[in-house]
């Protein structure tokens, strides 16, 4: 059974964001019609999602550790053109924290059950980082019949690098670690590693320098659904070890936009996706445009405009 409630009633308060920016919400209440929905999966997990707007369904699947609060600017900008959904995946955001089902395949089934719960016949699907992997897992299991268009934001087809790959294979896959365990320990500050084990400067860009919109969305996240680091760790091992190139080569058959930036460690793999998937194109943000892993959250107005243009374009 599905339940929805207004965001203000759900949180029992309004939230003021630190920066007042033209065209973007300064308070949670500025996002008119924002609702928080929930449903139960077939393994008994309560998942929440953010919803606003009207029109064609546009479903965002956030990356690892991300949630609907971080998408508040994009929800606000897009709700007059689409029915916008942001799914808080299990162990993320407002959803249940559980010690089972922490695999990309289960997350993909959760996405399928979300479609069923909301009676979404067809939608645009936009994934970011691990959210792309969840979508690729969904396509692998269930196909593309319920998808209008795909948007993939800066996710390596394979994070893990096999020792017998050529350098060309590594670059096309976007691989940047030879040890899932060392990468997880680095993420959690439990040890050090060298560039042969984990080669990324991703977290150098996890900041709000000259990115006031991102500062606002992160402030909302901190206030209403702070990260649960213990819960978030459990899916990482499975996420790191998947290789999705076969899905990209064989199973993505709808118009696709691939978005990345010049600061991304795996921008060449994003170009490879756009060259490999039929009827696809890439959009590469420059370094001066916050062209890093968080580009859509740092430049929400630019991204919303370009996303809308792509989704509204006749295929």
TrEMBL record:
<dbReference type="InterPro" id="IPR029058">
    <property type="entry name" value="AB_hydrolase_fold"/>
</dbReference>
<dbReference type="Pfam" id="PF00561">
    <property type="entry name" value="Abhydrolase_1"/>
</dbReference>
<dbReference type="InterPro" id="IPR000073">
    <property type="entry name" value="AB_hydrolase_1"/>
</dbReference>
<protein>
    <submittedName>
        <fullName>MhpC protein</fullName>
    </submittedName>
</protein>
<dbReference type="GO" id="GO:0016020">
    <property type="term" value="C:membrane"/>
</dbReference>
<feature type="domain" description="AB hydrolase-1">
    <location>
        <begin position="57"/>
        <end position="296"/>
    </location>
</feature>
<dbReference type="InterPro" id="IPR050266">
    <property type="entry name" value="AB_hydrolase_sf"/>
</dbReference>
